[in-house]
Every structure is written in C-alpha cells, then in structure tokens.
Amino acid sequence: EVQLVDSGGGLVQPGGSLRLSCAASGFTFSSHWMHWVRQAPGKGLVWVARLYDDGTRAFYADSVKGRFTISRDNAKNTLYLQMNSLRAEETAVYYCARGHRSGYYMDVWGKGTTVTVSS
Amino acid sequence: QSALTQPASVSGSPGQSITISCTGTSSDVGGYNYVSWYQQHPGRAPKLMIYDLNNRPSGVSNRFSGSKSGNTASLTISGLQAEDEADYYCNSFTDSYTYVFGTGTKVTVL
C-alpha cells in the first residue's frame, strides 16, 4: 500500500525550531518529487516547499524562504522539513505529499502532523 | 504568491451540476495546463480529484471534470451527491517553479 506517515509535530515557542518527518512506503521514494503543504486552523491549504527526487534542488514559498529547509534521505525513504524562527501564525497541520512522477500535482498525501507555535 | 481566487461557497441540490471557478494570472493558471483540484472532507487529508486541467485519477468519479479559459480554471461536479459535500481547492504550478493553492470553496448539497 502506498503510504506517507507524517510525524514530529508538537508545541513550540515563537522563535523556536522543529523538524518534521514523513516516512514513505509502498513506492519508489527516490523517483518522486516531494512537497510540504500546511493548513492553519479553519483556513485553506498553503503550499510550503518542494524537493527534487534526488534532493538536489528545492523551492519554497516566499513566506518560509530562509527559515525552512526541505530535505530527504532516500536510503531511509524519509522526507524532512526543518522549521526555524517559527511564528504564531505558522500554527497549522503540516502535510507531506508525493509529486507524481510525470506531472505537476500531488497524488498521495499523509494524514498530517500538527504544529502549534505558542508561548 | 497570492492565492488563486475561488468563491467561498457553492451549493446545489442532489442531481444538479455546479461549477467552481479558480482565477489566477498569466504566471500560473493562464500560463500552464498544470492545474489540479483537491477535495477535502473535515478532519481529513486532501484527495486529488483532477490533474493537468481535465484528467481524473483512477477511482475518481466521471462526474468530476475540469476546464480552463484564460486565467480561470473551473471544476464541474455533475449529478451532485451528498458525499460531494466538502471543501475544494485548486492548485497551479507557477512561473517561479513553485505552486499556489486557491482560497478554497465549500460545497454544500442542499
């Protein structure tokens, strides 16, 4: 079964850091771009970052550029999101999503992990 | 990277057809056919419903269809059913090699 399991969420103070993980199974992880998408409580989806299948190139939303880093370990079939200098407004459910091999869309999603930024 | 514009809500009776619009710019929706649509039920992860403007993944009902005119993409749900009640989001690839989601539309089945 194709599956993504997000983890690593929790409570962090403003200005703090957190690293999210996304464990992939059931498919060839190293052949797919991967994304992070977030959703604040009661709000819409917001695209956060994308990483090439080989990890060589990453793209970020302007709102997180310079503070968040997307990375992957293809040997461990795991995607990461390192989040630094977190702000209260970044409280959200963070989803990892698989990019389709031959298209510009996200075809498999994790269940999400909740990040709460609060003092 | 402003969000694509969608109507906040759309409603219809069972069996009717509804259309959700998604308006962007020539740097995203208008410039590419890489528009996708996602359905999200409360408390659940999003689900891909349409990709590359008008293609349905395996398992998605043919009641869902997509199209585009200029900078506006559209999702049409025909033969509306109770299970279609959910939030819907469009998404587009952009000139900056990033992605942008729409503001989201709540579909209500009357």
Secondary-structure blueprint:
The complex is a heterodimer of chains A (119) and B (110).
Chain A: E1 3-7, E2 10-12, E3 18-25, E4 34-39, E5 45-51, E6 58-60, E7 68-73, E8 78-83, E9 92-99, E10 106-109, E11 113-117
Parallel strand pairs in A: 2-11
Antiparallel strand pairs in A: 1-3, 3-8, 4-5, 4-9, 5-6, 7-8, 9-10, 9-11
Chain B: E1 9-12, E2 18-23, E3 35-40, E4 47-50, E5 64-69, E6 72-77, E7 86-93, E8 99-101, E9 105-109
Parallel strand pairs in B: 1-9
Antiparallel strand pairs in B: 2-6, 3-4, 3-7, 5-6, 7-8, 7-9
Ranges of chain A where pLDDT stays below 50 over 5 or more residues in a row are none
Report the order of strands and helices of chain A: EEEEEEEEEEE
| Helix-and-strand structural type of chain B | mainly beta
Greatest interface (CB-CB under 8 A), with counts per chain: A-B, 24 and 27 residues
Distance between the termini of chain B: 34 Å
Number of helices of chain B: 0
Number of E-type strands of chain A: 11
The stretches of 5 or more residues of chain B where confidence is low (pLDDT under 50) are none
How many beta-strand segments of chain B? 9
Can you summarize the main beta sheet of chain B? 6 strands, mixed
Mean pLDDT of chain A, nearest integer? 97
Radius of gyration of chain A: 13 Å
